[in-house]
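Example 9 (inverse folding). The structure is encoded as follows.
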Protein backbone atom coordinates (compact mmCIF):
# COMPACT_ATOMS: atom_id res chain seq x y z
CA UNK A 1 0.00 0.00 0.00
CA UNK A 2 1.35 3.39 -0.97
CA UNK A 3 2.23 5.95 1.68
CA UNK A 4 -0.55 8.47 2.21
CA UNK A 5 -0.16 12.21 2.79
CA UNK A 6 -3.18 14.29 3.79
CA UNK A 7 -3.68 17.98 4.40
CA UNK A 8 -5.68 18.82 7.52
CA UNK A 9 -6.58 22.42 8.31
CA UNK A 10 -6.19 22.02 12.04
CA UNK A 11 -3.65 22.22 14.83
CA UNK A 12 -1.36 19.18 14.89
CA UNK A 13 0.64 18.23 17.96
CA UNK A 14 2.57 15.16 19.04
CA UNK A 15 0.47 13.07 21.41
CA UNK A 16 -2.87 14.41 20.17
CA UNK A 17 -5.74 12.55 18.54
CA UNK A 18 -7.11 14.07 15.35
CA UNK A 19 -10.45 13.37 13.68
CA UNK A 20 -9.93 13.65 9.95
CA UNK A 21 -12.16 16.03 8.03
CA UNK A 22 -14.80 14.78 5.59
CA UNK A 23 -12.43 14.73 2.62
CA UNK A 24 -9.69 12.94 4.57
CA UNK A 25 -12.14 10.35 5.89
CA UNK A 26 -13.62 9.67 2.47
CA UNK A 27 -10.24 9.39 0.74
CA UNK A 28 -8.61 7.24 3.41
CA UNK A 29 -11.49 4.97 4.41
CA UNK A 30 -13.90 4.86 1.48
CA UNK A 31 -11.44 5.11 -1.41
CA UNK A 32 -8.23 3.53 -0.10
CA UNK A 33 -9.87 1.17 2.45
CA UNK A 34 -7.00 2.08 4.75
CA UNK A 35 -6.66 -0.27 7.76
CA UNK A 36 -6.29 0.57 11.42
CA UNK A 37 -2.77 0.36 12.83
CA UNK A 38 -0.98 1.77 9.78
CA UNK A 39 0.81 5.14 9.57
CA UNK A 40 0.00 8.14 7.39
CA UNK A 41 1.57 11.59 7.06
CA UNK A 42 -0.42 14.72 7.90
CA UNK A 43 0.47 18.33 7.26
CA UNK A 44 -1.32 21.61 7.97
CA UNK A 45 0.76 24.14 6.07
CA UNK A 46 3.30 24.94 8.79
CA UNK A 47 6.17 23.26 6.93
CA UNK A 48 6.22 20.12 9.07
CA UNK A 49 5.38 16.49 8.34
CA UNK A 50 3.39 14.78 11.11
CA UNK A 51 3.38 10.99 11.32
CA UNK A 52 0.16 9.54 12.68
CA UNK A 53 -1.25 6.07 13.25
CA UNK A 54 -4.82 5.31 12.21
CA UNK A 55 -6.58 4.11 15.36
CA UNK A 56 -10.23 4.07 14.28
CA UNK A 57 -12.01 4.04 10.93
CA UNK A 58 -15.65 3.32 11.86
CA UNK A 59 -18.08 6.27 11.47
CA UNK A 60 -15.11 8.66 11.67
CA UNK A 61 -11.38 8.35 11.17
CA UNK A 62 -9.24 9.04 14.21
CA UNK A 63 -5.45 9.17 14.09
CA UNK A 64 -2.82 9.44 16.81
CA UNK A 65 -0.02 11.92 16.02
CA UNK A 66 3.24 10.52 17.40
CA UNK A 67 6.11 12.32 15.63
CA UNK A 68 6.97 15.20 13.35
CA UNK A 69 9.87 16.48 11.32
CA UNK A 70 10.61 19.50 9.19
CA UNK A 71 9.80 19.16 5.51
CA UNK A 72 12.76 20.37 3.44
CA UNK A 73 11.03 20.34 0.06
CA UNK A 74 10.44 24.10 -0.19
CA UNK A 75 12.58 26.16 -2.52
CA UNK A 76 14.46 29.19 -1.26
CA UNK A 77 13.03 31.09 -4.22
CA UNK A 78 9.57 32.57 -3.62
CA UNK A 79 7.64 32.66 -6.89
CA UNK A 80 4.39 34.61 -7.27
CA UNK A 81 2.65 33.55 -10.47
CA UNK A 82 0.13 36.03 -11.84
CA UNK A 83 -1.66 33.98 -14.47
CA UNK A 84 -4.22 34.93 -17.10
CA UNK A 85 -7.16 32.58 -16.66
CA UNK A 86 -7.08 29.76 -19.19
CA UNK A 87 -10.20 27.93 -20.30
CA UNK A 88 -11.38 24.48 -19.36
CA UNK A 89 -9.05 21.99 -17.74
CA UNK A 90 -5.96 23.94 -18.81
CA UNK A 91 -6.20 26.11 -15.70
CA UNK A 92 -6.46 23.09 -13.40
CA UNK A 93 -3.47 21.47 -15.10
CA UNK A 94 -1.48 24.69 -14.92
CA UNK A 95 -2.19 25.22 -11.22
CA UNK A 96 -1.44 21.60 -10.36
CA UNK A 97 1.93 21.62 -12.09
CA UNK A 98 2.85 25.06 -10.78
CA UNK A 99 2.36 23.75 -7.24
CA UNK A 100 4.49 20.71 -8.01
CA UNK A 101 7.22 23.03 -9.33
CA UNK A 102 7.24 25.04 -6.11
CA UNK A 103 5.20 28.21 -6.69
CA UNK A 104 4.50 29.92 -3.38
CA UNK A 105 1.71 32.34 -4.43
CA UNK A 106 -0.84 32.29 -7.22
CA UNK A 107 -3.05 35.11 -8.50
CA UNK A 108 -5.58 34.40 -11.28
CA UNK A 109 -6.09 37.47 -13.44
CA UNK A 110 -8.75 38.40 -15.99
CA UNK A 111 -7.01 40.10 -18.89
CA UNK A 112 -8.30 41.41 -22.19
CA UNK A 113 -7.82 38.17 -24.12
CA UNK A 114 -9.25 35.84 -21.50
CA UNK A 115 -11.88 33.60 -23.05
CA UNK A 116 -13.26 32.71 -19.61
CA UNK A 117 -15.29 35.44 -17.91
CA UNK A 118 -16.06 34.76 -14.26
CA UNK A 119 -18.02 36.74 -11.71
CA UNK A 120 -20.30 36.29 -8.75
CA UNK A 121 -21.16 32.74 -7.69
CA UNK A 122 -19.33 31.18 -10.65
CA UNK A 123 -16.12 32.95 -9.66
CA UNK A 124 -16.51 31.92 -6.02
CA UNK A 125 -17.05 28.27 -6.97
CA UNK A 126 -14.05 28.34 -9.31
CA UNK A 127 -11.84 29.81 -6.59
CA UNK A 128 -12.92 27.02 -4.21
CA UNK A 129 -12.19 24.47 -6.91
CA UNK A 130 -8.73 25.90 -7.54
CA UNK A 131 -8.01 25.77 -3.79
CA UNK A 132 -8.80 22.04 -3.82
CA UNK A 133 -6.49 21.56 -6.80
CA UNK A 134 -3.69 23.32 -4.91
CA UNK A 135 -4.15 21.19 -1.78
CA UNK A 136 -4.27 17.96 -3.77
CA UNK A 137 -1.11 18.91 -5.67
CA UNK A 138 0.68 19.74 -2.41
CA UNK A 139 -0.30 16.35 -0.99
CA UNK A 140 0.91 14.52 -4.08
CA UNK A 141 4.17 16.41 -4.52
CA UNK A 142 5.36 16.09 -0.94
CA UNK A 143 5.05 19.75 0.04
CA UNK A 144 4.00 20.76 3.56
CA UNK A 145 3.30 24.40 2.73
CA UNK A 146 0.10 25.30 0.89
CA UNK A 147 0.73 27.96 -1.78
CA UNK A 148 -1.39 31.06 -1.27
CA UNK A 149 -4.31 31.48 -3.67
CA UNK A 150 -5.21 35.15 -4.01
CA UNK A 151 -8.56 36.52 -5.16
CA UNK A 152 -9.06 36.76 -8.91
CA UNK A 153 -8.44 40.32 -10.11
CA UNK A 154 -8.62 42.35 -13.31
CA UNK A 155 -5.32 43.03 -15.05
CA UNK A 156 -5.19 46.73 -14.12
CA UNK A 157 -5.47 45.78 -10.43
CA UNK A 158 -2.15 43.96 -10.53
CA UNK A 159 -0.32 47.23 -10.17
CA UNK A 160 -2.31 48.64 -7.26
CA UNK A 161 0.43 47.34 -4.96
CA UNK A 162 4.16 46.97 -5.29
CA UNK A 163 5.39 43.98 -7.31
CA UNK A 164 8.56 42.32 -6.10
CA UNK A 165 11.10 41.83 -8.90
CA UNK A 166 8.41 41.75 -11.57
CA UNK A 167 8.80 39.91 -14.86
CA UNK A 168 6.32 39.88 -17.73
CA UNK A 169 6.50 37.18 -20.36
CA UNK A 170 6.74 38.61 -23.87
CA UNK A 171 7.87 36.51 -26.83
CA UNK A 172 9.36 39.56 -28.58
CA UNK A 173 11.48 40.58 -25.61
CA UNK A 174 15.23 40.65 -26.14
CA UNK A 175 16.05 39.66 -22.55
CA UNK A 176 16.08 36.13 -21.14
CA UNK A 177 16.37 34.85 -17.59
CA UNK A 178 20.07 34.24 -18.25
CA UNK A 179 20.52 38.02 -18.52
CA UNK A 180 18.91 38.65 -15.11
CA UNK A 181 20.56 38.76 -11.70
CA UNK A 182 19.36 36.05 -9.28
CA UNK A 183 16.88 37.12 -6.58
CA UNK A 184 15.17 35.33 -3.70
CA UNK A 185 11.67 36.51 -4.59
CA UNK A 186 10.09 37.09 -7.99
CA UNK A 187 6.70 37.87 -9.54
CA UNK A 188 6.01 36.66 -13.06
CA UNK A 189 3.04 37.78 -15.17
CA UNK A 190 1.81 35.47 -17.92
CA UNK A 191 -1.14 35.96 -20.22
CA UNK A 192 -3.96 33.56 -21.15
CA UNK A 193 -4.52 31.97 -24.56
CA UNK A 194 -3.59 34.64 -27.06
CA UNK A 195 -1.15 36.24 -24.63
CA UNK A 196 -1.18 39.76 -23.25
CA UNK A 197 -2.04 42.75 -25.40
CA UNK A 198 0.60 45.35 -26.22
CA UNK A 199 -1.10 47.80 -23.87
CA UNK A 200 -1.04 45.27 -21.01
CA UNK A 201 2.64 44.56 -21.60
CA UNK A 202 3.26 48.31 -21.72
CA UNK A 203 1.41 48.73 -18.44
CA UNK A 204 3.60 46.08 -16.83
CA UNK A 205 6.78 47.67 -18.14
CA UNK A 206 5.66 51.09 -16.89
CA UNK A 207 5.28 49.45 -13.47
CA UNK A 208 8.94 48.41 -13.67
CA UNK A 209 8.39 44.80 -14.68
CA UNK A 210 11.13 43.44 -16.92
CA UNK A 211 9.97 41.82 -20.20
CA UNK A 212 11.52 38.41 -20.78
CA UNK A 213 11.36 35.75 -23.48
CA UNK A 214 11.77 31.99 -23.09
CA UNK A 215 13.15 31.41 -26.58
CA UNK A 216 12.30 31.95 -30.22
CA UNK A 217 9.10 29.91 -30.22
CA UNK A 218 5.61 31.01 -29.22
CA UNK A 219 4.42 28.84 -26.33
CA UNK A 220 0.92 28.00 -25.19
CA UNK A 221 0.02 29.66 -21.92
CA UNK A 222 0.26 26.46 -19.87
CA UNK A 223 3.62 25.61 -21.48
CA UNK A 224 4.97 29.11 -20.96
CA UNK A 225 4.01 29.23 -17.29
CA UNK A 226 5.53 25.87 -16.43
CA UNK A 227 8.66 26.50 -18.49
CA UNK A 228 9.16 29.84 -16.78
CA UNK A 229 8.74 28.36 -13.29
CA UNK A 230 11.04 25.43 -14.03
CA UNK A 231 13.73 27.74 -15.39
CA UNK A 232 13.41 30.11 -12.43
CA UNK A 233 13.83 27.23 -10.01
CA UNK A 234 16.79 25.84 -11.92
CA UNK A 235 18.59 29.18 -12.14
CA UNK A 236 17.64 30.86 -8.86
CA UNK A 237 15.98 28.26 -6.65
CA UNK A 238 17.53 26.01 -4.08
CA UNK A 239 19.28 22.83 -5.07
CA UNK A 240 17.91 19.45 -4.08
CA UNK A 241 18.47 18.76 -0.40
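The amino acid assigned to each position is listed next.
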Amino acid sequence: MKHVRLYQNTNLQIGSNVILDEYGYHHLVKVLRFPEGKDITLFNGDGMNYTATVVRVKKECVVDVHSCEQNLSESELKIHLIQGIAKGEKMDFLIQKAVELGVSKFTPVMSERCVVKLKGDKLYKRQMHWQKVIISAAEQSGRSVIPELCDTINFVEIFNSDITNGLVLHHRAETSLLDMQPVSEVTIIIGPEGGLTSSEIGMAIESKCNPIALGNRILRTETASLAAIANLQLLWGSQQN
